[in-house]
Amino acid sequence: xxxxxxxxxxxxxxxxxxxxxxxxxxxxxxxxxxxxxxxxxxxxxxxxxxxxxxxxxxxxxxxxxxxxxxxxxxxxxxxxxxxxxxxxxxxxxxxxxxxxxxxxxxxxxxxxxxxxxxxxxxxxxxxx
Length: 128
What we know:
Blueprint: E1 2-7, E2 10-13, E3 18-26, E4 33-39, E5 45-52, E6 59-60, H1 62-65, E7 69-74, E8 79-84, E9 93-100, E10 117-118, E11 122-127
Parallel strand pairs: 2-11
Antiparallel strand pairs: 1-3, 3-8, 4-5, 4-9, 5-6, 7-8, 9-10, 9-11
């Protein structure tokens, strides 16, 4: 089991930036795929980006962020960071990070059903 703790959420003006961090502890050897998901009020979780903390290219879901977000990792600190730039009114949500075991051709693809351990989330709000 992997414990995940997110931080970095807050309120920014449209066009601003935020950097979210996710610290993982526990059995990341068996769940090396760490991903970020957004959850808007009344909606399900939607994958934003994922990365294999054992090494591998980042995966970005361009449908959700249109290239404005990037994901990176510090494997020594077991921290995965989501850099969010040019935030728009469609971005406010609770952002969760999650851990899962499945890596596809080196990629960690953020499909909700493939992730078993979840953090409590960090809230992002965007003002006009």
